[in-house]
Design a protein that fits this description.
By secondary structure, the protein is an alpha/beta fold. It has 11 helices and 12 strands. The longest helix is centred in the N-terminal third of the chain and has 29 residues, at 59-87. The radius of gyration is 23 Å and the shape is elongated. This is HTH lysR-type domain-containing protein.
Length: 313
């Protein structure tokens, strides 16, 4: 079995159609079908349920898909590390971050672990607004970005979910709700919101508006800053409230108080790792592989101080 067989299998499994998988792999359909059959004979099991219009994984196929993805990610990491070391010079990885993404423990653990494993890669950080970062990844000014929204408007990009995070309400320290144990969205119906309005009302802002409407009201948006730190500054001056990711609480401001949204709320803040679908550098392949590896580790373990201690310390 070769790595190419795993790539063929993953493409067919994800596309659920041999013709689409062949197009994705830039090969003809008959050779792809033949290679899948060879793989099944070598394994001694059938991996798919087949019908004239669709091909889907059976139980054996689902088990094998998990292992195939793990092996492919491991091979990408190994290749990336060898290529970086063989060059004998520092490679560069350009990483874009929003304020709230940088404050998340999983982001911090990822950057720390990557720098330990790939010391020859120079990591350059650029903080910015979500749409600016998405555009920068799309036009290859950045290699990757950690953001709080999806990438549906960018067909050339792909997104990897790293975490879902609870939300909190940031309010002036003189607000009537500062002593509340938790809040429901309906409690905020009379408030003035500080809300970054994203393209076509997508992302966290669009989701907040939808959830407010489901709670029976349309939020009164009074200010539309581009970034979270600006929104928090406005909250501190008493200009309104903001709904932000819980990790933002680690960014203390003297006149801002945070209160959680009720635990039963299904509205959460995603943490997404965004990159281009093609043209991955060895450094980027290593970064994506490390992100996938750490995504399986609970936050309580990632927060352990000794987890990423280098062997020489």
């Amino acid at each position: 079995m070769e790595l190419r067989h795993l790539r063929y299998f993953v493409a067919v499994a994800e596309e659920e159609n041999v013709t689409r998988a062949a197009k994705r792999l830039q090969m003809r359909q008959p050779p792809l079908t033949q290679q899948i059959q060879i793989l099944e004979r070598e394994l001694g099991v059938q991996l798919f349920h087949r019908s004239p219009r669709k091909i889907t994984l059976n139980d054996s196929g689902r088990v094998f898909l998990d292992e195939a993805l793990r092996l492919l990610k491991a091979s990408e990491q190994a290749i990336a590390k060898v290529r970086i070391q063989a060059r004998g010079c520092r490679s560069m990885l350009r990483v874009g971050l929003t304020t709230s993404a940088l404050l998340h423990e999983r982001t911090q653990a990822l950057l720390h672990a990557f720098r330990l494993q790939y010391p020859d890669v120079e990591v350059r950080i650029e903080d910015g607004a979500t749409l600016d970062l998405l555009n920068a990844v799309d036009d290859e000014s950045l290699d990757v970005a950690l953001i709080r929204t999806e990438t549906t408007d960018y067909p050339g990009l792909e997104s990897q979910r790293l975490a879902d995070e609870p939300l909190v309400v940031a309010m002036p320290s003189t607000h009537r709700y500062t002593q509340a144990k938790s809040l429901n969205l309906a409690d905020l119906h009379d408030e003035e919101f500080i809300l970054p309005i994203q393209k076509a009302n997508r992302g966290m802002s669009g989701t907040l508006i939808q959830n407010c409407e489901m709670a029976g009201f349309a939020p009164r948006v009074r200010h539309e800053p581009r970034r979270t730190n600006a929104a928090l500054g406005m909250v501190a001056t008493g200009m309104g409230i903001a709904v932000v990711a819980a990790s933002v609480r680690s960014f203390p401001l003297q006149f801002v108080t945070y209160r959680p949204l009720a635990p039963r709320s299904s509205y959460v803040a995603p943490l997404n790792l965004v990159s281009r679908r093609e043209a991955r550098s060895p450094a980027l392949a290593g970064f994506l592989g490390k992100a996938a590896e750490l995504a399986e580790i609970p936050l309580s373990v990632l927060s352990t101080p000794t987890l990423f201690r280098s062997s020489g310390s």
